Amino acid sequence: MKAGYICLLLLMGASVALTACGNTKNKKAESNIVGNDKDEHGCIASAGYTWSEVQKDCIRLWEKGVRMEDVADKEKSAYIVFAPDSLQVELFFSGDQPNEILDRRSLPGGDYAWNVEDDDTKNVRQENGKWTISQRGNLIYQQVDEAK
């Protein structure tokens, strides 16, 4: 009887230990699940979503934005995302460069450009059917051809 009791205790201990290991594995697996990485806005980065201030929504840049390529370094890129009313444009840059929001301004010829009244800001406009980003009169990004 005493040997049976000891066996029962050992089996119960082994069962608890296996269950605990299984729960740890499940918790670890849950933390690695795609979609389990919401940011403060509820955007799921692992699914490609990022917060857009001008859209006031979680977006996928390749779906809502226009892809731009750095003219000096083809490894760098940017996206421009327009507000629904087109009064602002948000610039998303690769790397650690912070987003910038620019306001729409009327040009003398009737077209528009997006910038901030500051000499050092970026300037977004459409030239020859392509979107461009310039700074201090120098072209720094241009729209990527879709055929590439």
Automatic annotation (TrEMBL):
The keyword Signal applies. The keyword Signal applies. Residues 1-19 form the signal peptide. Keywords: Signal. This is Lipoprotein. The lineage of its organism: Bacteria, Pseudomonadati, Bacteroidota, Bacteroidia, Bacteroidales.
